[in-house]
Amino acid sequence: MGKVLIYGTSLASYRAAVNFARAGHKVILLNRGAFLWHRFTQMQWQQPRDIVNGYSKGVLLTAAGMTGNVKVYHMSELENVEGSPGNFKVKFKTRPQSIDEFRCIGCDLCHEQCNVKFIPMPLGPGMRIIQDPKEAERCMDVCPAKAIQVPKEEEKEEQVDAVILSPEYEPEGIEKFGGSLKNVMAFRDFAWMFRGKGVDKQFLKREDGKYPRKLGFFTPAGFDGYLGSYEEQVILFREALFMKEMDPELEVHIFLKEIRLYGHNQMVLYDKAKKEGVEIHIIDDIKVEQDGDGVKVNGTPLDLFVVMPGQKIPEDWLKLGEKIGIDLDGGFAKTKAFSFETSRDGVFAIGEFVKPVGSAEAIYQGTAIVPQAEKYLKEPEIPQMPQGEYKVDDFNPKVGVFLCRCGLGDLKPDINADMVIEKDYLCLHPEEIVKEIQENGINRVVFGACSPALRGAMLEMLAAKAGVHSSYVELVQLREYVSRVGADDRKAGAMLNAAIAKARKDVYVDIPTVKTVKNIAIIGGGLAGLIAASYLIEKVPLVYIITEKFDEPNEATGVTSATLHMSAEALNSWYKNLRENVLKRAKWIRSDVEDITGSLGNFKIKAGEDEIEAGVLIITTGADIVGDGEHITSRLEGDTLHSALAALYAKRRNVEGTYDLMRSYSLLEREAPEAERGGGEPIARVVPREVNRKIAEMLGLRLDKEGFFFFAEEPRDWIERAGIQFMLFEEPFGGVFIAGLAHRPMNMEEMMEEAGFAAQSAAFLMRDIQSPAGKFISMTNPRKCAGCGICVDACFSGARYIDEEDHIAKVRPALCVGCGACANVCPSGAAIIRAYSPGGVFEMLKEVVK
Amino acid sequence: MSEKEFEPVIVGFFCNWCTSAAADLAGTSRLHYPASIRPIRVMCSSTVDPVYLIRALQEGADATILGGCHPGDCHYITGNYKARRRVAIVKTVLKSLGFEDDRVLLEWISGSEGPKFARVMNEYTEYIKKKGEADFKYLDSLGGE
Amino acid sequence: MSNDMLKKFIVDAFEKGLIEAVMAPAATKDSYTYALITKKEDVDKITPIAPVMQWNGADMLRRITKLKKSERKLLAILRPCESRTYKELVKFNQINPENIIVLSYDCPGTIHARNFKYEPVEPENLVEEIKNGGKSEKIRDACKVCEYPAPIPGVGDIGLGLVNTDPVFFSLSDKGKEFLGAMGITEGERDADAWVEEHRKRREEWMEKERITGGRKGIEEFLSSCLNCHNCKDMCPICFCKECFFEDHNVFDYESNKFYNWADDKDGIRLPTDRSLFHIGRLIHMGTSCIGCGLCQQACPMDIPLYRLFGIVGNDLQKVFNYKPGVDDNLPPVMEFREDELHEFEGLLGGEE
Questions:
Q1: Quick check: is A387 in a domain?
Q2: Which helix (H) or strand (E) holds A210?
Q3: Residue A613 maps to which CATH number?
Q4: Per the CB < 8 Å rule, is A787 touching C93?
Q5: CB contact (8 A) between residue C250 and residue A785
Q6: Nearest to A495 among B18, B27, B38 (CB)
Q7: Is residue A639 part of a domain?
Q8: Residues in chain A closer than 8 A to B46 (CB atoms)
Q9: Of A769, A487, A450, which is closest to residue A600 (Cα–Cα)?
Q10: Interface of B with C (CB under 8 A)
Q11: Chain B: partners with 3+ C-beta pairs within 8 Å
């Protein structure tokens, strides 16, 4: 089992911690804040309302709980790193939090008796802090979970195999853009107005309490010293659209020097903004002045002006570089070509520390780091799911209700069950619960406790230990839904009796395990395919590469860009090496793909003479690059959107004219370009391949209008998400991954990130996994199914299909995620989620309204 | 029923990933809302069969709420769009027959919107209180006026 | 005589090898059922334009082709409402349209099957009445207020015009065009717009007047004689489920205490339970695709004018989704969704506060 140290709590490091833990390695996460989330991630700074925020932490807590592989140290600072890869000695200072959030059960006893500061947070019991160490000492005995400790700074030393640095993002100030004026605010403060409360007119207020009728948004992309990704603009456009949707009367302006909406189908935001009447001003300079009650921006009167700043290079990054002994480039960590490895072997850097990134890239990096670091790590120990023996009896329910006093408070509900057992804290008496269930012959368990997000998994596990399958377990969150929100005995009784009624009707759900074919097929000869294969050949029995020929690296995809640090010759020899190495171990099928059938775990592919089987597909069909410039554009038609930054490059390369929507994010350029606006030809552009269309048809994937594949973050047309869905690792994507130029125009460094993401995720799917739906697995009652196919259309993950043989809908358990949409739409009740069977729900509804 | 102040019962079907999480947050933050709300946790707003909504009203609920993620944020990508179609069907049928269709409410509340959750619950309970007892529960019974 | 003419058409088609089977109504002692013939010699046994619609013809096609496509070239003679049902059921994967040619005609309407039994009418009588753009007073309510009494382009393949003209054929699809060409028939025209418009005007008036209002009281009174026999569901061509959700004993069988509790809470209950829920539930399940054939009403042994329920609520539902079942090419509302729609159903006051 390997061991890594991750420094910092950025979006990328949250994700990396999860991925290392799931891959079977120990993780030490050094958090510089007082608790998780204390130090903001980039997304928390930029869009505090985004769902990525909640889930970055939620996914970490889940993975930590499930694998036991993550240890978090708060208030810590890395002191030094000695030794060599595979054998680093790291020293760090840490000061534990007064209340250990991993132990805290949220009972709030300390609240009543001690001086505790409480910070509510989604997904979890919230954060509690006792500022005064003396108070903490006094309170230690109050806590039933023994979570209170006296915070004392400690020096720690640990031995780790690799070190991953990902210190957090910090935003620039907005002083340069009128920040000191009244009614000019940073975007974060603006977005915060609606946080938790919903985007609603009543919350939009200026400092003076007035409702602004004219709003302006601005981000200084392209201005002096600006560092940022495309995401700032995506968020701005989304917010402008939210405002328009909230109040169509509102006048909304966006001021930009250049438009950085790139790939990921983000241009729909621009189109939609235009359609909805958002005014977009393309400006060269910005002048913000006080204007009576409001401000004037380049002559446009506004009531409120909102500035989204770029990223700054914090002082402590420079210090960190010095302390660890790695080279920095203008404050960013310098990495080796095609790698996250810094100038020091075994020390890696990911996230905003490497370059300005969007949340999508941060999450890709947090996954792609695993195969790279693994060369220094010891063999992983893959966490095993416990297998239990269950008593299956659908017909003779004996319901036992376990009531947690912590959850119930002073309420005394009237309960109608075979057996009621009360404990002060259910989660602190696991053995007693198991014993009670076994001794009393209970075969249906209702836990009246706290939120399933906190102790649900643990309580279900206890029931499983006692031989009661999770499909016979009901959870009632008495604490968050009843006692804490001022409810009465009647509600508590109704909620419990409803769960009891449902428990009586519960039936056993046999959760299927999916056996996957242990091969991976890489389709297409894109560069990302070779990179992905290079990670996979060590881990997977057999890797197929299906292509007639391979793409050579093209200079246009960023060979000499600021971050790759590589000469053309070096690149060539690297590529040759890579290809040779991969083809030594992988099986190259020299023909184009002709037909693909099957689904996750069991794809069948026809290519030329060969018919092969694979569990997972990685699609890297590459693309053709037209022209020979350094930078790439994707969108050519429609409104001409001028990129001033592009003009800068044109000037340097002695090319006339300016250029249309260039790839201009994540560039480490800080000087303002001297540019003229105008039309022109792109220097180089990426043209997706025709074969994409055929593959998309065979696999039911979507292409954007240029012919690139949509993937993961992009299935929607309407409001484009700024970041990748939080589900990125949780869902198997139907076992199909897209990487490289098949996905969108990108440089080689990004190809490496996407290839690493695809490889790591694919390798994870090589384990035989339980259906991700768990007890919510969808089933079909063949006696009732009329084969109408409504459920097939309703299923977003492709888990349902009509069997041509018997004209009945069938389920692919590997793809079912248990959302229940099929059961909802099925008119005859043939598609069912047994955990939400109408019989059970009807019984429940009868009780719950009491 | 007549002597006491009318205490409505409102059945809420809340999706596991957003609205239930918001309810959790409201709970951990101790934001009080009326006891008339009876939350039921479902995996996704699209898990809720429209018949469940009708059934809840028939069993005696004075109103029902279906809570899901904001458009574009659904954990299952498109579940909330499907749920919206179902709610549109239920509301149209109710309205068409002369029932009060505002006794079925569809709300988007995300995981971090604990305060919004409490606000919506308060507002809706007030609204239903003003409207009075639902007639639907007496469907096919001898009771009611 | 239009029936004779159609029979000649069928014999011709048999002889030219364009078809190998025909599905059309055939007389029984008191009524008409559907019949399937495979030989031109049997053509005299059928009555292509029958005065009674005992079953929906599309429902018969569903039975023939649900498991496997039609192995022979089948000509189905369907009324316009049946051909719309046909199109809707194809979307629901219940009919495989391969090898099927649908012929539809200006429909004179049909007589309630029970009335016909006691007071039979010659098939041609009804056709005579529409020749000059009129209609018979004997036809069913649903027929009087039919929205699409004439064949619709894109629904079915061949149309037969009877209103304001001697019978003329015209094509409704490319397949139909080819078929008529192979038959050597020149396509004709007729002006039935005013005739259709009259139906639609009656429909508007009917919807205004016959709407069931008043919530619980209204629906309870309307259904007060309902036997809970579920015949309406059995005859509904859109209710294609093998087993109705509302007949699931796992869901709708209760312990005695549940009945007593209900009776406690609701000051007495009516038995059998869930009678109105069945109808409301059925509206939710199939209302968006209700074709308006009115067979539910014909099937009701208690003569409840059920078409007032399903026809009008169905129409309201279809308006919400801007969908005409059996006419539009897009999928039924229950099978798809859009990202940017139906905001009026969000929140308390339809999104606007």
A1: no
A2: none
A3: 3.50.50.60
A4: yes
A5: no
A6: B38
A7: no
A8: 794, 819-821, 824
A9: A769
A10: 50-51, 54-55, 58, 60, 71-72, 78, 81-82, 84-85, 87-93, 95-100, 102, 105-108, 123-124, 127, 135-144
A11: A, C
| Claim to verify: residue A301 and residue A333 sit in the same structural domain | no
Cβ neighbourhood burial of A474 (10 Å; 0-12, 13-18, 19+): buried
- CB contact set of A742 (below 8 Å; sequence gap of 6+): A524, A526, A528, A619, A620, A621, A622, A623, A688, A689, A692, A708, A709
Q: Are residues A218 and A289 in the same domain?
A: yes
CATH of the domain at A824: 3.30.70.20
User: Which of these, C251, C250, C271, lies nearest to C259 by C-alpha position?
Assistant: C271
Measured in angstroms, the CA of A235 and the nearest CA of chain C are apart by 19
Domain final residue, candidates A764, A790, A814: A764
Task: Compute how many other C-beta atoms are within 10 angstroms of the C-beta atom of residue A91.
Answer: 14
> Among the residues of chain B, which ranges form H helices?
19-28, 50-59, 79-96, 114-131
A299: domain range? 175-307
> Per the CB < 8 Å rule, is C341 touching B87?
no
- Residue found by looking up tokens 């003779």 in the block: A396
Banded pLDDT at A585 (limits 50, 70, 90): very high
Asked if residue C159 lies in contact with residue C105, where contact means CB atoms within 8 angstroms, the answer is yes
Q: Give the other-Cβ count within 10 Å of B101's Cβ.
A: 17
Asked whether residue A578 falls in the same domain as residue A710, the answer is: yes
- Whether residues A229 and A263 share a domain: the answer is yes
Same domain, A491 and A591: no
Q: Which of A249-263, A465-479, C106-120 has the lowest mean pLDDT?
A: A249-263
A630 pLDDT higher than 60: no
> Does one domain contain both A408 and A498?
yes
DSSP-derived letter for residue A611 is E
Q: How confident is the model at residue A702 (pLDDT cuts 50, 70, 90)?
A: confident
A324-333, A622-631, A724-733, C160-169: the lowest-pLDDT one? A724-733
Residue A659 counted as domain residue:
no
> Are A366 and A425 members of one domain?
no
pLDDT reading at A558 higher than 60: no
Residue A288 φ then ψ, to 5°: -110, 125
For tokens 């389709």, what's the residue? A523
Which residues of chain B from 9 to 28 reach within 8 Å of chain A, CB to CB? 9, 11, 18, 21-28
Contact C298, C242 (CB under 8 A): no
Contacts 24+ apart (CB under 8 A), C234-237: C234/C299, C235/C55, C235/C56, C235/C295, C235/C296, C235/C298, C235/C299, C236/C282, C236/C286, C236/C295, C236/C296, C237/C56, C237/C58, C237/C59, C237/C62, C237/C82, C237/C85, C237/C89, C237/C291, C237/C293, C237/C295
Q: Does A825 contact B82 at a Cβ distance shorter than 8 Å?
A: yes
Q: Answer for the pair A617, A737: CB distance below 8 angstroms, yes or no.
A: yes
Does residue A241 form part of some domain?
A: yes
Do C148 and C177 touch, CB atoms closer than 8 A? no
- The ipTM estimated for the assembled molecules is 0.95
Condensed to tens digits (0 to 9), the pLDDT of residues A774-808 reads 889 999 999 999 999 999 988 888 889 999 888 89
Pairing state of beta strands C100-105 and C158-161? Answer: parallel
Q: Same domain for A800 and A823?
A: yes
Q: Name the pairing type of β-strands C21-27 and C74-77.
A: parallel
User: Three-state SS across A292-348?
Assistant: CCEEEECCEEECEEEECCCECCCHHHHHHHHHHCCCEECCEECECCCCCEECCCCEE
Tally of structural domains, chain A: 5
Q: What is the mean pLDDT of each run of 10 residues along chain B (145 residues)?
A: 76 92 90 93 92 94 94 82 94 94 93 90 94 90 84
Using a CB-CB cut-off of 8 Å, the residues of chain A touching B24 are: 122-123, 451, 453, 477, 480
pLDDT-based confidence at residue A724 (cuts at 50, 70, 90): very low
